[in-house]
Amino acid sequence: MAEDASSIPTHTKAWYYSQHGRPADVLKFDPNWPLPQLKDDQVLIKVIAVSLNPIDYMRIHGEFKDTDPDLPIVPGFDVAGIVVKVGGEVRKFKVGDEVYGVINEEGLSNLKILGTLSEYTVAEEKRLAHKPSNLSFIEAASIPLACETALEGFEHAQFSAGQSILVLGGAGGVGSYIIQLAKHVYKASKIAATASTGKLELLREIGVDFPIDYTKYNFEDLPEKYDLVYDAVGQTDRAFKAIKEGGKVVSIVPPAYPPAIFFALRSKGSYLEKLRPYFESGEVKPILDAKTPLPFSQLIEAISYLETSRATGKVVIYPI
Ligand code: NDP
Questions:
Q1: Residue 260 in contact with residue 233, Cβ under 8 Å?
Q2: Which parts of the chain have pLDDT scores under 70?
Q3: ipTM for the assembly
Q4: N or C: which end of the chain has fewer CB within 10 A?
Q5: Cα separation values, 27 from 38, 71, 122, 140, 157, Å
Q6: All residues at 6 or more sequence positions from 126 whose CB lies less than 8 Å from its CB, including other chains
Q7: How far is the CA of 255 from the centre of ligand 1 (A)?
Q8: Which atom of ligand 1 is nearest to the CA of 235?
Q9: Does residue 220 sit in helix, strand or coil?
Q10: SS3 13
Q11: Are 243 and 225 in contact, with CB atoms under 8 Å apart?
Q12: Which of 52, 252, 261, 315 to mutate for ligand 1's pocket (most ligand atoms within 8 Å of CB)?
């Protein structure tokens, strides 16, 4: 691979934290963070856009300090960017390719010290996929963690065409993808979802047959029951009351307990490849919060906004 070595950076601009706390108190900007040595299965990415996820602020708060690497840490899981260097064993990508993905293998273990809230980052090629050309970098960045999580839950549930689903938290980053995958990929017979009053129209637009205003109704008291309740809020107790006999509960929010199926995301570029036709056809589309995008300089405002749990769809940082 022909590369101009002089153009490959050794340092990067990055946001980092060296103590746990509120993002506004502990996030700092480093114009000169050293880049790690590229491993054979990794690519170096010029980051173009990054979407935020609740796990970013949860880690900054210290909720996962037992499994996190030692501080200081550059946060960020999702990336969309351009490959600027490839390791010796990389086969799928070349310099100049537009890629996106979740750079960490799992939600809570083996996390990288250098995350994606950085001008450059590194990831193993198997975590990444080629960015669909019809999507902007902002749109692509909004997909990986939320949409791969949504997909993985359907796999755990062994959801099949013709089954019905209730999505708890339908307007959030993950929920908006759960709904779209239920409709277009898994061909659910009926899709219900919860949100507050102002977001019910959005739910209808992305495929919900039966939007439930949680400010007016308790979903578990309604007569309709479902084959699957997919909980993106943390309402496991109540979710059990909304399933049909033999139905399942999948939850991505602790404390979920059996028989609910709880899992933490595993990042796979192959999930994104599987979904590529749905992105290219426009059937599954990124839902971006009205504040999106916010520039790199406004990371603290963006992450503080996500922490309100009121975002609609995804919050994306761009330009970096
Ligand atoms: P978001 O911050 O995007 O969710 C915000 C949305 O949640 C808002 O649109 C809000 O809608 C909705 N919401 C909040 N409270 C309720 C409620 N009581 N009922 C219905 N909707 C509600 O978060 P994500 O979608 O990115 O993540 C959702 C959860 O899943 C988080 O707890 C996250 O940590 C977890 N997660 C877990 C993963 C795993 O691997 N286990 C992976 C990814 C996420 P409104 O304003 O209408 O209330």
A1: no
A2: 1-6
A3: 0.99
A4: N
A5: 26, 12, 21, 25, 38
A6: 41, 268, 269, 270
A7: 14
A8: 18
A9: helix
A10: strand
A11: yes
A12: 252
